């Protein structure tokens, strides 16, 4: 009998250390236009609630072409299915509500959560709101069972959105956002789903990681891995940077340089899976960096290069925790209807934001247990 107990215990131990994999889908239209790029920039400013200090013009969000990485979850019993943006640049978990106002096009254009159809729904009703640059998102708190990658999270509280701001979320390919930032930045300090995965012992380590397939298809965009990292997705070892502000996944960057010449030293950056670009948090550095790669200014936000010269452009080297991470021009230049645009844009005088241009090249581990972010060369 004791032998069988040991065998069962061993099986349970193996199962507890297994990585939980969530396939993520990538949406990137082959016809990315300059207005789409401008929209993504405006959307990022809206997300971080910042404005440009070098322009007095008002930004209007248009319908973007939805560059990003999304995955499937379900909520309620029986399950109601949603496509969500897994976003390390925010901490709130929200979904459209079946009770959204009739005039809210974005809500009615997506899957909506209906609490009356779930036997595990627990009413809360406390008003909740999230600020966006284009307006406030309004809703209320609800609690239900959430399933992600085969894991069942009990009593997860989230926001049922009844009013989405402006037209920011019109025609988006995701229904809602599942924030993976720190609880400190969540509305009403509600524990994000990853916190509850850990507290309910659904994963063996308080770690998750992203492999973003930069050249993947819409159905094979990569994987979100819960409970650790997968060796097959990276080479060498991780380099870890401690989190400097436990709200965003924020850390110190030693420098960013071109041809051995530093453009900026010792600044703060955020690892954000919710954007495809790299936001420069200093206007002078924005101009200098783009000029050093040989780009010319197209407008207040964008620089471009001659598409025929992309292969000959210099690498951009970002140094983190004493290690150099080199971005080749094929990674930081993207094509937009005949234009070759730089991925480095000016967001505001704020922290820098390293989006998928960086994370897609360097497998990224988010270690909540040790409050650190790790980077390794992606395969």
From TrEMBL:
GO molecular function, one term: aspartic-type endopeptidase activity
One cellular component term from this protein's GO annotations in UniProt: lysosome
Disulphide bonds in the chain: 100-107, 307-340
One BP term from GO: proteolysis
Catalytic residues (positions): 87, 272
Entry keywords, A to Z: Aspartyl protease, Disulfide bond, Glycoprotein, Hydrolase, Protease, Signal
Cross-referenced InterPro entries: Aspartic_peptidase_A1 (IPR001461), Aspartic_peptidase_AS (IPR001969), PEPTIDASE_A1 (IPR033121), Peptidase_aspartic_dom_sf (IPR021109)
Signal peptide: 1-16
Residue span, Peptidase A1 domain: 69-376
Name of the protein described by the UniProt record: Lysosomal aspartic protease
Organism: Zeugodacus cucurbitae (Melon fruit fly)
Gene responsible for this protein: AAEL006169_2
């Amino acid at each position: 009998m004791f032998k069988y107990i040991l065998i069962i215990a061993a099986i349970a131990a193996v199962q507890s250390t297994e990585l939980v994999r969530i396939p993520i889908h990538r949406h990137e239209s082959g016809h990315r236009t300059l207005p789409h790029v401008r929209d993504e920039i405006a959307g990022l400013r809206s997300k971080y609630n910042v404005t440009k200090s070098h322009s007095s013009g008002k930004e209007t969000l248009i319908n973007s072409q939805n560059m990003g990485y999304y995955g499937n979850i379900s909520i309620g019993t029986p399950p109601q299915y949603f496509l969500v943006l897994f976003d390390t640049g925010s901490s709130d978990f929200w979904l459209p509500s079946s009770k959204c106002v009739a005039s809210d096009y974005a809500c009615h254009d997506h899957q909506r959560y209906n609490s009356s159809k779930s036997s595990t729904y627990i009413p809360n009703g406390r008003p909740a709101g999230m600020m966006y640059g284009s307006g406030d998102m309004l809703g209320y708190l609800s609690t239900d069972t959430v399933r992600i990658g085969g894991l069942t999270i009990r009593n997860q509280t989230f926001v049922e959105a009844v009013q989405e701001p402006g037209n920011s979320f019109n025609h988006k390919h995701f229904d809602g956002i599942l924030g993976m930032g720190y609880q400190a930045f969540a509305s009403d300090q509600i524990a994000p789903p990853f916190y509850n995965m850990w507290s309910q012992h659904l994963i063996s380590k308080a770690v998750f990681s992203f492999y973003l397939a930069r050249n993947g298809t819409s159905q094979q965009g990569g994987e979100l891995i819960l409970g650790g990292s997968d060796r097959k997705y990276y080479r060498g070892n991780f380099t870890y940077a401690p989190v400097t502000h436990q709200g965003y996944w924020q850390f110190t960057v030693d420098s960013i340089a071109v041809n051995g010449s530093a453009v900026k030293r010792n600044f703060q950056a955020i690892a954000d899976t919710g954007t495809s670009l790299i936001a420069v948090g200093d206007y002078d550095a924005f101009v200098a960096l783009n000029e050093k790669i040989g780009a010319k200014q197209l407008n207040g936000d964008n620089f471009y290069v001659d598409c025929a010269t992309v292969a000959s452009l210099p690498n951009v080297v970002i140094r983190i925790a004493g290690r150099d991470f080199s971005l080749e021009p094929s990674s930081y230049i993207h094509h937009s209807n005949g234009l070759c645009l730089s991925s480095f844009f000016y967001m505001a005088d704020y922290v820098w934001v390293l989006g998928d241009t960086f994370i897609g090249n360097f497998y990224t581990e988010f270690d909540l247990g040790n409050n650190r972010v790790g980077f390794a060369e992606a395969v």
